[in-house]
Amino acid sequence: MTRGLFRIAAAILTILGSILVMAPLTGQAVAQPSGAGDADQQIGIPKFLKLSLDSVTPTAVTTASDPVVTVTGTVTNIGDRVVDDISVRIQRAPAVTEPGGVRSSLRLDQVNYEVVGAFQDVAERLSPGQRKQFILTVPVRGSDGALEITAPGVYPLLLNVNGEPAYGTQARLDDARFLLPVLGVPPSGGSEPAVPAAPAPPVATTVLWPLADRPRWVPTEPAEDRGQVLLTDDELAASLGKGGRLDQLLGALENEIGADGARNRTLARSLCLAIDPDLLLTATAMTDGYRVLASPSDPDGPTRDGGGAAQARAWLDRLRVVAAANCTVALPFAQADLSALAAVHDPALTARAVSEPADIVDRILGARSLRGVGIPDSGSIDPIAGGLLRDQNIRTAVLAETAVAEQGTAGAGGADDLTQDPSGAEPTPAEPARPEVVRMPDIVPAAPVTALAETPAGDGPGSRPDPSLHALTYDIWSATALAAVGSNPPTPSFTPARVRYDVTNDSRTARLQDALGALTWTALNPRPDRPRAQLLVPPQQWGANREEAIALLRQVDALLTGGMATARTLPELLAQPADPRPYEPDHLPRAVADGVPERFVAPIRDQGARITALSRALVEVPELELTPTEYVTPLRDDLLRALTLSDRRAGGTAQPDVYAQRRLDRTASTMDRIYGSVTVLPPGGVYTLASEQSPLLLVARNELPVAIRVKFRIEAPPDASIDDTGEQILPPNGTRSFQIPTEVNDSRNLVIPISLTTPDGVALGNATSVSVRSNAYGQALAILTACAATLLLLLAGRRLWHRFRGRPDPADETFDPEVQRQVSRYRRFLARAVRRGEPL
User: Fold this and answer.
1) What is the pLDDT of residues 71-87, one digit of tens each?
2) Which residues, at least 6 apart from 699, have a Cβ–Cβ distance to it below 8 Å?
3) In principle, which of 157, 277, 617, 639 could form an S-S bond with 357, CB 3.0–4.6 Å?
4) How far apart are CA 15 and CA 13, in angstroms?
């Protein structure tokens, strides 16, 4: 009886478990793509399998390639139960016909992938944590189960994995999407000939090759930087060393074009190295030895020796060779946010961030980089930033094509026009949505940004439209795809909201395929409304490895050698005549959200003003190696590093904000310490003046390694007059005594406040006070002295008057006669002795 009830209960539980599992699996029949932000998990659907793409051969199909495509992937059980009868198949959607389709096609539902291949078994069973690799080979065309590709194009493909989880039924459990560029259809095994791409004018192609890194310099007093610099960590040593990110990016260039560009001069002509000057300064400092924090989260904690001096030296030597033979252009210092920099409105910071990077690159690499080009990391600028660039003689801004719009269309639904979901989910497109493609010049010719220099009067640099600033725009779809290549891929701010998703859910191979397809699309799809040109711009802190970078370079080379593209240098691109049509900046709210928060602007402006005031007070001494400019420049660099856009688009802004605030706090404390190093020394005890006009003796000390001009600020009390000594110079690392002309008209003790300032009136050091005691009696002493002198003159005159008249002075009548006789006798004795010459 009991056993029977137990069996009935077990059966009921089994049925209920099957129903609970089958319901979500049935609803998953049209699942979201793996790159869509884990939509299944967002609505509570469990995940059982993870499908990742490992390799695609060939990465791009040509008329000379094999007539089959081989796909390698891995299926991993990420659930909490076994999955049986696992199989995969490949599906194909129609070729992408719009430029935005290289992104939007990756979010298509499964039903849009109309060409369906046959399922291939992968594993009979996978337990939780187990994985199984598979190889899937499909013909390009001409047989059952083929991809049925009959014309060149960029084709979206989908890998679909089915399985039966425990307590469930057979269902689609995951998928992986990627693009397959087809430059030409190879001949099939039958009688079908090869199909090359349709004749079209070649695409003028230019590629920016970024070399940048996040700021790692720990703010210290500039004098300390002349020894061993202090870095936050030693990750840059690994990046510059063998197998590191920057080593691989440089190695890919050396592999494809040669160190001197002679291996492939056509490909080399299309490339231009975009280099962060802060990276070069840091790597150069590393070559002389450096220290790193034992814990990056504790900037005041212990340090240790860095181990990347040799790696930095070798990497810089290689880069010098490549830069000498190829185009180079400087990025803004430390990938600074130009809009935030314009809001700070500090001319010295602006020059350091925008104008001086080219000089830094030239000095360190021994090359001649391009001038007059601004390349903001965000791909966009606001009107104030446009005025900033213009004022720094920047004639061209390299921007995403959605950062400028034809006049009259801005604000009518930008490419990143967003509405925020109250639940905090990914923003959704606002209505009305912008069309898939913005009709505007892509590369040729450059679009003049006439409104970029417009700012309210007195609100920042620039006050009227300036047609001398032009926007050189690049395609956002290829830039978005290139940004997804490699490790820690960000989604650029200019990527429209409707196609934003977490690309880290896709495998690196899938993201590489998407980039190959995106940079190929323009060459395969000539359009009358788009110029035959493309500028390829990866993110500045790019995470592509050597193999991925080589694959992208070879794809560009395949387009060049196949006659589908032609190399165009960046100088040639910049020399194109400007389009006379007016343009104005488009509003990109996500660029603002991804930028440096406004709360950092005022503190950075304040510290910049303190640095400027200090630099004006410093004096260059010819015999000293350290100049005032060299002393204050690291201080400005630290402020620019606080404005960096590095890592602000790779998973939130909390950590970048922490680093920026920590850097700003340390810079502020460094400035406090510097200003406190120049002070007047407090005298011990009470200072006594010998007379009412005795000078006041003071000693000033300068602990800075540079000379500085100072002024004494002395608040004289009413009974004292202290002269202004004007500007004085304090020697570096020394003291100097000063005699301050002082007049005190009172004999009481006085307290005189004394401090030092810069010539501009900025306070230096700590104010002190001097207790002064004077021997002067003031006006009473002067009257008594005058009266005594007058009386003395009167008495002396009376005596002389009586003597001239031969009369005794009446004052002598009061003497004793005997005393007078003795005095007369003594006088005669003296007179006689003098006449005879006798000794007295």
Assistant:
1) 999 999 999 999 999 99
2) 680, 681, 683, 735, 736, 737, 738
3) 277
4) 5
